[in-house]
Amino acid sequence: MVMKQIAILILTGLFLGGCSPKASGQYETVKLQQDNLEQVIEAMTLQEKASLVVGGGMTGSSIGAAGIIRALPRLGIPALELSDGPAGLRLRSTATTWFPSASLLASTWDTSLVREVGKAMGTEALGHGADVILGPAMNIHRHPLCGRNFEYYSEDPLLSGKMASAMVLGIQETGTAACLKHFAANNQETNRNNNNVIADERTLREIYYRGFEIAVKESSPKTIMTSYNRINGIYTSEDKNLLTDILRYEWKFDGVVMTDWFGGQDAVAQISAGNDLLEPGKRRQRRAIIKAVKNGTLPEWVLNTSVRRILELVSDAPSFTKQAQDQSLTETENAAIARKAAARGMVLLENRDALPFKDSIQKIALFGVSSYKLVAGGVGSGEVYAAYTVSPAQGLEEAGYVPDREIMKRYESYTDSVNRAYKRKWKSITQRILGQGLPAEMHPGNEAIAMAVAQNQAALITLGRRTGEFSDRKMEGDYLLTTTEKELIDHVSKAFRDAGKPVIVVLNVGGIVETASWTEKPDAIILAWMPGQEGGRALADILSGKVNPSGKLPVTIPVHLEDLASDRDFPLIDFPVNWLSFIGKKQTQPETDRPNIDFTQYREGIYVGYRDFDKNGKNVAYPFGYGLSYTDFRYSNALAHLENGKVVVSCQVTNSGKRAGREVVQVYVSAPEGWLDKPVQELKGFFATSQLEPGESQEIHIAIPLESLASFNPDIGWMVDSGEYTFRIGSSSRDIRQEVRLPGIPKLILPLPFRLPLPK
Ligand code: BGC
After folding, report:
1. At residue 15, does pLDDT exceed 90?
2. Is the pLDDT of residue 71 over 80?
3. What is 633-751's CATH topology?
4. Average pLDDT, the chain
5. Topology of domain 335-561, per CATH?
6. 260 C-alpha to center of ligand 1: Å?
7. How far apart, in Å, do the first and last CA atoms of the chain sit?
8. Residues acting as catalytic residues
9. Taking 80 as the threshold, does the pLDDT of residue 325 lie above it?
10. CA gap 462, 479 in Å, rounded
11. Separation of 262 CA from ligand 1 center, angstroms?
């Protein structure tokens, strides 16, 4: 027995310390402090270093988070908890606040509000013992059918970058670390672990990296997560040019880079490239790193660099500094913030004098499964285990309206029967992981509609979509409304409008759906996005007029999906989720030749979203930046002048209508002819006004740094052409209210930095 214990002790010693004298107790007294990182690194064994850079597995977390950084108690290093995600903490062990998803937050165009949401999340993280929030997510909406668009902000890199910066600043002001993800070009879910993005450098720099660059420079996130995909043949987590040359040397990022969960293939290539932390971590990755250091293929100083960055993160993290927060203080406050943000990001697409509801409206017939079961957010790591979600029916009832009981009963019993059948069903792995989808839409029958017309003063139809991680959306029955949904809109609209009663359609979706073919049928359309747990209350705030809508589209809604330049290079097919690659199983021979599966060509280049629609003069259903209000705004006194390397654009915005409201002022810039082909206009600045009373005005000043007018020339660097620029100030990209021409913008060249070779 004693012999066995001695043997275990020796073996444990060998594993943790190897034969190194460091294990002999020589350095035992070194414990991590904020100013002794070098000493700690010096005291670490190779095995300990490898165990720090490779996470502690999917089940390592003590709070039900997605992953951890391992503890090394001998050195006073606590474990750090890494929790998803962009819409609130995702902890298997506890209920947390489900905030609105990113597309809704971006629709507020309000950096202060997004920062407030970030701060609320950061505070909640402290209360639950999470050190790092795995968000914000900020990939570009290259195509509307990317399954994860709900987690991402916009088709425009400036709006994405500013939103992400605000979120990071909010999260990090609490002491919790944020994580920008997924760096970069993770714009489809289909075959996401192997897909190879083929794009030219200008496109990458100006569209797919630009938002990350803005967020890195303006908010100093403590961590960044690389994406699953490859770019031009190289996994992003193994790409030294991306992670070291661009991210660290050019943008001066000084935090920790981590992989996405099981991302990439080669642990040694990842550490060599500057991807410091491999999550969630596998034993074979630790072994590979140890072996590579021993045989000289991975210099130990390179590993030490990653270790140092992780120790910096640890020594600043709540688990180390013992910073904590009384959770009970934040729950109600955070729910109020979630509600406020949700109402501010809903976009009013149509309103033919139907909203806000007139005082005469009391009884409302609510159609659509999602009227009774809100889709608060998307599926996958972005989903949050909230204590509750408020449906439109509940929200309206709390606001004093009376939902039609008969119609409600029909939907509830339909949903119950679908749920019962689902429980009895045999389930595939995909169904088990993704959970039950939304029941297919239900039409209660024309008789029930006729009765509802007689009993109610208005109708609301909520159409929901439950989309998310792992797969992309489909055209039929998802982007295009199903036959039942179309019939529901047709029949309810006709019956209620014939009786002079308004019909409102609410889109409870993570990404846009087709609208052009039915937009004339109801009286109003609200894009409510995936609004988080308080969605129903926020919706009632908009419908009742308690909140005047000020949300503006962060994306373009096209007339036809085929109008999009990226549509020819997007996987509009049913492709099975490869769960094996998700859990990190190495593919022996990944296939390489299936277009839009193995590789995706970004042939549209920089012409994504409105950049494409404007260039080709195409009609759209709703333009980028569009959104209605219950009041009107007048723009006047537009000016632009050059001051200290910035163009300062100013104007006055006046509420010329009858209700208090907010406006989002947008500045688009048209450049003169120059060295490179340029978009017709690009968003270069924006500002969300404060709540303006009728007749009230606000002076707006938007500073646009000259460098941000630059385009990327791969042979030289960033270049601003000299000449006359037009600053177009408007309420949407296609509703420009004032134009100012500013001649004399000087030529500016920002060459790429000269890079010293790395030390050996
Ligand atoms: C997602 C990440 C997430 C991670 C941990 C991955 O599947 O792509 O966004 O942070 O899982 O849950």
Report:
1. no
2. yes
3. Immunoglobulin-like (2.60.40)
4. 93
5. Rossmann fold (3.40.50)
6. 6
7. 49
8. 260
9. no
10. 15
11. 9
